[in-house]
TrEMBL record:
Gene Ontology molecular functions: ATP binding; ATP hydrolysis activity; transmembrane transporter activity
Keywords from the UniProt entry: ATP-binding, Nucleotide-binding, Transport
GO terms under cellular component: membrane protein complex
Similarity field: Belongs to the ABC transporter superfamily. Macrolide exporter (TC 3.A.1.122) family.
UniProt-recorded name of the protein: Putative ABC transporter ATP-binding protein
InterPro entries in UniProt: AAA+_ATPase, ABC_transporter-like_ATP-bd, ABC_transporter-like_CS, MacB-like_ATP-bd, P-loop_NTPase
Gene3D superfamilies per UniProt: P-loop containing nucleotide triphosphate hydrolases (3.40.50.300)
Keyword hit for Membrane: no
SMART domains, A to Z: AAA
Organism domain of life: Bacteria
Amino acid sequence: MDAGTKLRNTIGHDAGPATLSGPNLGICGSIVTAFVFGPIPVDHSRIDRVSFPIDGRRYTVDQATCQSTAQQPGRFRIGGPINRSALMPSDPNETVYDIRGLTKIYPMGEVEVHALRGVNLRIPESEFVVLLGPSGSGKSTLLNIMGGLDVPTDGEVRYRDLDMTRADANRLTWFRRESVGFVFQFYNLIPSLTARENVSLVTDIATDPMTAEEALDIVGLSDRLDHFPSQLSGGQQQRVAIARAIAKRPDVLLCDEPTGALDAHTGITVLEAISNINAELGTTTAVITHNAAIGQIADRIVSMRDGVIVDETRNSTKAPVSSMSW
Ligand SMILES: Nc1ncnc2c1ncn2[C@@H]1O[C@H](COP(=O)(O)OP(=O)(O)OP(=O)(O)O)[C@@H](O)[C@H]1O
């Protein structure tokens, strides 16, 4: 089972996203042993399906297939041995984000800044979407709302079965903590901590993390575990930041100009890491950029201007990062 294996509930509008506990997962012949965790006081009986990737392919089982449920302090557990034949390939069209009529107005004294003016966007399972547009077009505002870092003025944002516009603060905190990995232009690593220690800050508090070593391996930094940020190149520091973002096994990865501070060569190593995570772990991924070339490696390019989506282009085939013209 690959390091990114995870489980999460896909139903129950106030149910917390639940992740698979790595050590409790194993495949033995035709049997998959898996446990799903979620926060109490969520009513876990309302969860009727769980889905997870195995070797880059996503599968779903219904809860009836799971053979045991148990309460643990602070969280519930559903799981048990699942016959492999009960695993159904997930519908690749399942909706991860459904955004409708999204507006965001920032009051600035006497004036109002209309950052988003009615954005409609649906992002399906495991899609890699690039958000492109000039400065001030609303890309970061949209990504911040998708990540639960900001709230809309109007409109609807649904993440799976979670209505983000109506969810209470606890539910949104859980969503941010368990379901979303953020990567920003500036790496925000702690200079006095090694790469491993920077990633461990997250693995120490997440419900079901991979190890810092596993996360750093995924971004190709197994040989830099004990390096401090000052001993790493910009691209390597950004990859540590990506490892930190994925160590909790997020369902979605939101990247705001992850290569904005990097030259072409180091930028490509960062894009390779992001692209691999999307392909191999099935993590739904949104990347903001000003660089139209990055659109070549995505499934879809969404172009924004003045707070609205002005164009959407689907790539029939994603270009490998190695063939990208920067
Ligand atoms: N917290 C805020 N308060 C007031 N105005 C804001 C705030 N955040 C963003 N804005 C304004 O909203 C508009 C959209 O900003 P946003 O950062 O989303 O654009 P962007 O496309 O990400 O730009 P860039 O590519 O330069 O990062 C801009 O006019 C910006 O000045």
